Write a sequence for this structure.
């Protein structure tokens, strides 16, 4: 059996020594302070090479980003051949490589993978990679490139990209020349594909007023500007928060309020991307100056409603639509989907990988996290039906054409802020709806998210799609006892997979009750067995 060249491994690994820290491949890969990541990213290069060899040389993607985290953080995620997140079973191998304490242990960890996973090292390895605008990205790319040299992978650097663009490119490269060919493997190919589909979807409809688009001073800004020429006059936008030169401004957004520095006005339509443009939320200001958020739940409701109607208008009756949410979904949205739209709804743990997997069970699976991360998946059989349908009236033919274009405008690989934007803009244009009309589908229960800094988030263990804690022992009973006192009360506690905190979600019948519930549970967690770290936040009751 072929073996790894140990001298090559040693000399490259010596350039990227491992710090004392322990690393874990979490919700969205490895993510932490950028200065700790050099060895992790070097070893992720080795992992991606092994993954490619295991899959017979298929192209694997590596994205260097920390998405919504502060500018000082960075991270890395591995993308599987069809643009999905890396297979869950490989996360423990990623963690094992990242934590090998010495070059010898790293050599052994690679060989353990090779033998247990039956990887043929003589196979080729192909890897593509990109990064967001964080200043630390360039040096981390150099570490990745060294990691790719260990097993002699062929690689292409796609430079600065949004995360979903890297997912798209990975799928294009692996499907090129097959009946499932996904598009041209470049940012330009991505713009062309989305723009062409969007133009079909809004053809002949009066244009909406310009969208005011906050890009969180992240990679979405330069990339969306790059796309504008492909859209022609089909779409009009005013981009704000587009300063990618000053890293301190990255992701300075606030929760459930307009981003810092953006003065909102009634009658306008706003959207915000996160730092790597894989999430989007919409919002507007009501006549009484209230800020109104249209989050991932609202997008899921809008998309499901529209697709159900379109399938009906197309005269296709054998395509079922289902929606996937997480525990963060507002209770009112779940009710709306189940009781008004009559669609099946599943609840899974946080992390697009879980939602994506579940959505594959439906003909058309709409999945969104409340934070705006999501997409719509069309199964191969649904696509076959849509492409085979001819329609027996002009109206049916138009609906079929729209369904086809919709499957092109929506990124099938992963949640994508650009493609979700075009999905929403399509529906609002088709219906000539303002955000306020869209918002009228249902009224959100007031909800609140609280972050609790704890000494060790790994002691928090959950079950039931993260809706219940099993550890620390007794904490869930204490939470339940508090929740019982609130009308329409619901609350859960889960450790974040991307930040060093525990998150508390609460909803209740009124805003004051919701705030009280959130802060009571937050205070409970902070105090429980002295879990909290630092000063006890003053707001906690
Ligand atoms: C990542 C995941 C999302 C998740 C989010 C927050 O998003 O891909 O699925 O909702 O982290 O996760 P947590 O609450 O565990 O910190 P992103 O946009 O940061 O990559």
């Amino acid at each position: 059996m072929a073996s790894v060249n140990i001298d090559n491994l040693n000399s490259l690994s010596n350039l990227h020594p491992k710090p004392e820290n322990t690393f874990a491949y979490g919700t969205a890969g490895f993510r932490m302070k950028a200065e700790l990541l050099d060895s992790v990213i070097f070893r992720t290069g080795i992992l991606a090479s092994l993954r490619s060899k295991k899959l017979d040389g298929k192209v694997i993607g590596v994205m260097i980003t920390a998405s919504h985290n502060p500018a000082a953080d960075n991270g890395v995620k591995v993308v599987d051949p069809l643009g999905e997140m890396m297979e869950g079973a490989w996360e423990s191998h990623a963690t094992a490589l990242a934590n090998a304490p010495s070059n010898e242990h790293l050599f052994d960890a690679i060989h353990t993978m090779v033998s247990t996973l039956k990887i043929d090292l003589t196979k080729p390895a192909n890897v593509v990679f990109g990064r967001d605008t964080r200043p630390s990205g360039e040096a981390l790319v150099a570490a990745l490139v060294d990691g790719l040299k260990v097993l002699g992978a062929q690689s292409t650097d796609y430079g600065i990209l949004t995360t979903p663009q890297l997912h798209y490119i990975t799928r294009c490269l692996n499907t090129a020349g097959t009946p499932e060919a996904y598009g041209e493997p470049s940012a330009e190919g991505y713009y062309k594909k989305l723009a062409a589909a969007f133009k079909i979807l809004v053809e002949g409809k009066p244009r909406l007023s310009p969208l005011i688009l906050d890009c969180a001073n992240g990679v979405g800004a330069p990339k969306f500007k790059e796309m504008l020429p492909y859209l022609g006059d089909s779409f009009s936008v005013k981009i704000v928060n587009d300063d990618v030169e000053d890293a301190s401004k990255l992701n300075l957004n606030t929760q459930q309020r307009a981003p810092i520095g953006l003065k909102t006005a009634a009658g306008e339509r706003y959207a915000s991307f996160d730092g790597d443009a894989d999430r989007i939320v919409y919002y507007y200001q009501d006549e009484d100056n209230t800020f109104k958020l249209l989050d991932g739940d609202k997008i899921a409701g809008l998309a499901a409603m529209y697709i159900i109607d379109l399938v009906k208008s197309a005269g296709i009756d054998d395509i079922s639509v289902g929606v996937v949410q997480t525990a963060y979904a507002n209770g009112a949205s779940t009710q709306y989907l189940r009781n008004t739209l009559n669609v099946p709804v599943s609840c899974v743990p946080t992390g697009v990988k879980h939602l994506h997997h579940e959505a594959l069970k439906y003909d058309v699976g709409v999945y969104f996290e409340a934070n705006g991360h999501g997409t719509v998946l069309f199964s191969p059989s649904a696509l076959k039906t849509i492409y085979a349908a001819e329609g027996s009236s002009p109206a049916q033919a138009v609906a079929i054409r729209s369904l086809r274009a919709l499957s092109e405008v929506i990124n099938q690989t992963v949640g994508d802020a650009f493609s979700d934007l075009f999905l929403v803009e399509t529906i609002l244009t088709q219906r000539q709806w303002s955000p306020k009309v869209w918002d009228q589908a249902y009224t959100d229960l007031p909800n609140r998210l609280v972050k609790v800094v704890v000494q060790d988030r790994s002691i928090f263990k959950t079950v039931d799609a993260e809706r219940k804690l099993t550890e620390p022992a007794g904490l869930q009973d204490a939470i339940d006892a508090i929740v019982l006192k609130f009308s329409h009360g619901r609350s859960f506690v889960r450790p974040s997979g991307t930040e060093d905190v525990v998150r508390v979600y609460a909803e209740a019948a009124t805003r004051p009750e919701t705030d009280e519930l959130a802060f009571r549970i937050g205070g409970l967690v902070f105090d429980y067995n002295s879990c909290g770290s630092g000063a006890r936040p003053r707001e906690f009751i």
